[in-house]
Structure formats: structure tokens, C-alpha cells
Amino acid sequence: MLTGVDRSAFVLSRPHRSVIGEGRLALFDHPGAALRALADGSARAVVGALPFDLSEPCALTVPATFTVRDARWRPPVAVPPLPSIVGAREEPSGAEHMRRIAALVARIDAGELAKVVAARSVEVACAGRIDPHGLLAALVARDHAGNGFCADLSPAGPGMEDAFLVGASPESLVRRDGRSVSCWPLAGTAPRSPDPVVDVQRAEELASSAKNVHEHGFVVDWLRERLAPLCSGLRVEARPSVVATPQVWHLGTRIEGTLRDPAISALDVALHVHPTPAVGGTPHEAALEAIRASEGSRGFYAGAVGWCDSRGDGEWMVSIRCAEVRGDRARAFAGGGIVAGSDPRAELDETSAKLRTLLGALGVPSDMLGGV
Ligand SMILES: C=C(O[C@H]1C=CC=C(C(=O)O)[C@@H]1O)C(=O)O
User: Fold this and answer.
1) Distance 118 CA to ligand 1 centre (A)
2) Cα–Cα distance for residue pair 262/230, rounded to 1 Å
3) Does 3 fall in a domain?
4) CA 19 to ligand 1 center in whole angstroms
5) Is residue 5 assigned to a domain?
6) Which residues are CB-contacts of 111 (< 8 A; sequence separation ≥ 6)?
7) Quick one: pLDDT at residue 27?
8) Does 204 map to a domain?
């Protein structure tokens, strides 16, 4: 048992630092109210999650204690073991996901869209309650960079009691330290291989893949466009580099700038750039409409998780490689960018590789679902 520890505490674990928010002084289901509380000094910090669709409720908390440490998160005491797996169900099925991708590719060919991210989920049923910090501990231990997050979703209101968003995202939406702002968008993916020679070959192929570089470019263009009015001296790496997670390789581009107005906070910037085409698409509105039509609400998957303090500093991660956890259930999500020429089977396999982050940490055997 975790005694004397806030089992619903917010945690963001990063390679360089961890942020922990315990207790709850105030809850906000709208980011505007959180921004006002930070600006008027009534909140020292705000932590939590933004949904994919910003017209839906967010889940932000003013914690009673807010701790920043210069190292990745480690559980303060032993966490309970995760319960055994009873079953797992894909939503939609792999066949339906491929059908949706084929329909999106047809819309891209017709010139209605240039890029759109298609996502699916797996709902895992367990024999007992999933401790959110127990799952977080498993994720952080399996992630060589030490990435992980856990956010209480109950501030989003009715229906979200006992819901948490738990994940290990490699993608930083925005980080603000004083006037410095940085983003590290990821898009373009290749699965890792247990064979080191094949693994390196896959990374090299990804770096030179015209399709993946094209898919990645939409995200960089969007961020450049959104950040240029806010920043002076915006620096965007000329070409993407290859970034490793335990399950996949990604293309990533570092972007840095200096805020023209020091009153603009990390949360302001996150709200200004979210959702990027790493989770949405291009053109922006048409892609969001296509996602709504094919998937319905994504809830907090593909939103953002992070923190912002009263100085405006903070960090927000894109909430991918995550699951919504409620009681004995966890619903894990993964998506992938669809562009002209995307192959539905390869895209399905890509989401299976991404889903392994969560399914592996939960202990779901790989043969429990077709190919996931
Ligand atoms: C939308 C997801 O990943 C994004 C981040 C990195 C690579 C991506 C891709 O190659 O499609 C996605 O844009 C997800 O993992 O659910």
C-alpha cells in the first residue's frame, strides 16, 4: 500500500526533471479560468491535462504542494503490482481501422486533405483496480529516457471521477523557461527491431524516407507559422533527426525561440499550438472535422499533459503513448499520420508498435490481440 502518499498526485517525469503536484486547492474544467488564477497570483502552479478537442472540458488542478526535482520520477515507496489481465478488445477492429485509412487516403487523393492522423484504441480489462502510479512506475522503468505522466481527469467533471491519464510520451509540445520557448515535434515512424543491424537500418531508412519527411514537414510548418508571431529569433533545425523510443523510431525537429512578450505563459503557448498536425492534420480544420467524423471524441488522448507556474514557466507533452485508466480498465490509444500513398496495413502495424508502450507496461501478452 502507498501510505502517506497522494495516490492521485500529478506526475510529469522527464529525463532532466520531474514535477509532482499533490493535493488539490482548486479545479478547472476550462483553461481560461486556470490562466486567470495564474495571472492574479491565486495559483502558484496549475497541473493536468488538455483534451484533444479544446471545446471539451479540460482537467486542470491547482495542487496544494508543487515539487520540481532535477531527475526523472521514482516512486516514493513501493507501488502495488499491476493486476493480471482478463481480456483486451480493439476499438475499432484492425479491419475497420484499415478501412478508415483507405477512406482518408481517398480524400487526400481528392485534394480535400494533405495529412490526417487516424487513431484507434485497445481496452484492457484487469482482475483488479489498476493503480495509476503503479502503471506510471512500469512505464518510466521501461522508458530509457524516463518519460512518463499521470494526470487526474476528475476536474473535467461528471463521468470522469476516478479517471486518470497515464502514459510515456516522447513528444514535447512546448517548454518555456523564462523567455526561452522550445518544441520538439515528432512525426514519421518506423518500428524498432530486436536485431541491432536491422534496427539501425530501419532508422537510416526512416531518415531518408521521402514519405516520412513529407509527413513530418506538416508539423514543423504548423509550429513555425504559429510560433513566428510570438517569438523573435525562431530557430528551426534544417532537417529532422532520428529519435528512439523503446518501441519505435521517430523523426524529430528541435524548434527554439525567444518570447517577444514575457507575459505569455507555457500554458498560453500550448493552447496556441495545440493540436499540431502530429495528432491532427493539414489543413487544420478539415483534418479535425475528418477525425471527429471517423473517430468521434478522442477525450484526452492526443491532447496535452503538463504544468505551468505563476512565472509562466512550464512544460506540456503531447498526450500520446497513453491510456485512460478507470478502476479495473485501461483504454490505450495510438494513431499515425496518413498522407498520400499511406498503406493501410503498414499504418495498422505502426499503431500496434506504438500501442506496445502501454500494453507492454500493463503486461498484455502480444498474442492476446491480432498483431498488437
Ligand atoms: C499520434 C501518435 O504519434 C504521433 C507522434 C509521433 C509520430 C507519429 C506518426 O509517425 O504518425 C504521430 O504523428 C501516437 O502515438 O498516437
Assistant:
1) 9
2) 10
3) no
4) 24
5) no
6) none
7) 97
8) yes
Tell me, yes or no, whether 109 lies in a domain: yes
Question: 311 alpha carbon to ligand 1 midpoint, in Å?
Answer: 31
Q: Which atom of ligand 1 is closest in space to residue 337's alpha carbon?
A: 11
Q: Tell me, what CATH number does 223's domain have?
A: 3.60.120.10
Annotated active-site residue in 171, 295, 324, 350: 171
The phi, psi pair for 299, rounded to 5°, reads 60, -130
Summarize pLDDT for 107-150 with one digit per residue, the tens. Answer: 999 999 999 999 999 999 999 999 999 999 999 999 999 999 99
The atom number, within ligand 1, closest to the CA of 336 reads 11
**Which of 116, 117, 143, 149 is the best mutation target for the ligand 1 pocket, counting ligand atoms within 8 Å of the beta carbon and taking the most?**
117
pLDDT tens sequence across 209-264 = 999 999 999 999 999 999 999 999 999 999 999 999 999 999 999 999 999 999 99
What b-and-e string marks burial along 151-173, b requiring 16 or more CB atoms within 10 Å of the CB?
Answer: bbbbbbeeebeebbbbbbbbbbb
**Whole domain around residue 257: which residue ranges?**
10-362
User: How high is the ipTM of this complex?
Assistant: 0.99
Of 362 and 7, the one with more pLDDT: 362
The number of domains in the chain is: 1
Q: Which one of the listed residues 56, 91, 96, 115 is annotated catalytic? A: 115
Distance CA 370, CA 352 (A): 9
